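Dear support,

I submitted the protein below through the web form. The confirmation email said the job was done, but the results page showed an empty box. After a refresh the structure appeared. I'm attaching both so you can tell me whether what I see now is the final result or a partial one.
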Amino acid sequence: MTLARSLVIFDVEGTLVDSTALTMRCWQETLQSFGFGFPLATLQRHSGEDGHDMLHSLLPGPQISRVVPRLLKMQGHALSR
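What the results page shows now:
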């Protein structure tokens, strides 16, 4: 007799792998490629935020609508707004 078993593992940030530093570095590089320089300490304050919300907090008003969709696409986020 064979028993079928299924297993699902959910990795809530920091439980199995802490990818925060890598994620912040990726955001820093992506923002730099668009001409926006932010120190990692500034980006770290937004760790855990939705990318859309983070970008609206960081970027100056008139530039938001121009670059946010492209930044999110570059980061691999689905545009939900």
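Response: this is the final, complete result; the empty box was a page-load delay. The radius of gyration is 17 Å.
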